[in-house]
């Protein structure tokens, strides 16, 4: 599998964070989820090489590591685009219009939650509920939580990112 | 920490706080955006005017009325300001000790404030969640000290039993009974776990409690661990709540430094180590056995019960699992007594409950009311009614596992039993208000899609049943359903409810069943007329 992320290279400092997470739990198998969090925080995503490395160090079959990674929505196995749009799909955000934004993204750009545009500019992530329901509908463009966004505001942000003038 | 030491810290902090003529409390919860900038600007103005010795700006937890945020509270005058922006800083400071800024004033006599009864939330929005000294100054950790130095574990458990406290996570199991089962269970190693995997969309009680008073949750856990004989514990918290995680980490560190966690707590023979475990976006992990699997580093797939976690939980050891709000109630019960707690609420549901009001309601936010308060009071008095002149249609409690309660039952007093009798559940406390503009069938389809996606796939009724029910609901939404579909829908809901392994599947049909009961016409209206079956997709 081609990968932008190199296999384990000790000189890459980000691996230290991954190693530290495992070390903190004495390399016990139950450190798996904590380690996956650390690796995703460090690299932005979890590629096969990373998963294999973690499997070896924690002495867990790679199939189990893969199973855990794909079971939890929070972990992603593909690199993110230049921008990331997180759309809250909690009930309050749903009834206040985030379903429209998701439908618009699908219709206009063919973008579905978990996917990235072919030009690698935008990744779309769906979260269940960030618990800021008073701010509904909530979107999180590039990590900045934004509330009470109108459909027009949200789509304007996305169009700007994508250089979509129309 | 000994009592004298604790008192000294508390007294020092109280003296420090009392040294200021005015306190400006700024909500630093997730729901009040730009609070960092507001705090920064307020401090700049104070420095520029040389008021550092007179005015103290404090970052505090959630004040509840998120709809009007960012909220700022002036003490000791008890003046609240709403929708504050950094530009208002100079005006707010200029008005200190004088007439308040009318333009920003949030009336303190709103029923939203006056009709609430705050126990768990009493300190929320009043203290700095990132300062253990602030918590100590409000008698924080005195319950731990009392429990460890003056009470036997059996006394504590009896007190919790007598209080009538029931689990605030949803199922309402008697907390004292759970504690006594874990205490009696055989095993040298026991665990306490805090379930902070608040997965219901539209619920944010636990987030707010963790962000506002993390030490109260720790205090409850320490007392619980002492009572059941546990020396290790975990807080399983959602990764979607980064601010809560940050404040919890800090709170644990501060408690360790003050010998309230770790080795020989309060100079006694009791040790407790607490660790945080991050969830990773799986709703099913709120189910206690799935949560245990996840802490052990595996996929969050529920285990069959029995054995219950109280007997065989984490790594096969007796494990006490309680919810955030349950733990936050414990210090209050220890300090004020079981009779005080049992004096609130209804006969079978004691105490107060925190609810998150969201959806089509004016006062979106967090409230705490005694059990037994009616839904009407919650929606129309405290919640301020429905915006836009629309009519109330239903209140959805318990998230995707709960049901929709129509207007004719608005006078129902809230309790575990009454909501259950209406086909809904108390759940963790999320209340979503639905107005006449929302289609119940569409809404229910949303919930079923949620359950379908979140089903772990272990048991067939839930894995296949939720997908089939969702497919049927889609037909109703597309106006292509038939009479047979309606019959199949009812049959499937019953099947999934009675045969699923865990709470996710057992409760997933609740939104469908409750709307079939109270809003059946909406389903019937969407059944395709056989004579026009060629007009697919048309109303």
Task: List key phrases describing it.
heterodimer, A: 166 residues, mainly alpha, Glutaredoxin, 2 domains, 9% strand, disordered N terminus, B: 539 residues, Rossmann fold, Ubiquitin-like (UB roll), 4 domains, 5-stranded mixed β-sheet, 14 strands
Q: Would you give an account of this structure?
A:
The complex is a heterodimer of chains A (166) and B (539). Chain A is mainly alpha-helical and 166 residues long. Chain A has helices at 14-24, 32-43, 48-58, 62-71, 91-109, 151-162, and strands spanning 83-88, 122-127, 139-141. Chain A is built from 6 helices and 3 strands. Chain A has a 3-stranded mixed beta sheet with strand order 2-1-3, with helices on one face. In chain A, helix 3 crosses helix 4 (62-71). The longest helix of chain A has 19 residues, at 91-109. The relative contact order of chain B is 0.10. By secondary structure, chain B is of the alpha/beta class. In chain B, strands 2-1-3-4-5 form a 5-stranded mixed beta sheet, covered by helices on one side. In chain B, strands 11-10-14-12-13 form a 5-stranded mixed beta sheet. Chain B has a 4-stranded parallel beta sheet with strand order 8-7-6-9, with helices on both faces. The mean pLDDT of chain B is 93. Chain B is 42% helix and 14% strand. Chain B has 22 helices and 14 strands.
Instruction: Classify the oligomer.
Output: heterodimer
Question: What fraction of residues of chain B sit in β-strands?
Answer: 5-15%
- Strand order in the sheet with the most strands of chain B: 2-1-3-4-5
Number of helices in the DSSP assignment of chain A:
6
CATH homolog superfamily of the largest domain in chain B: NADH-ubiquinone oxidoreductase 51kDa subunit
Secondary-structure-based class of chain B equals: alpha/beta
- The tally of beta strands of chain A, per DSSP, is 3
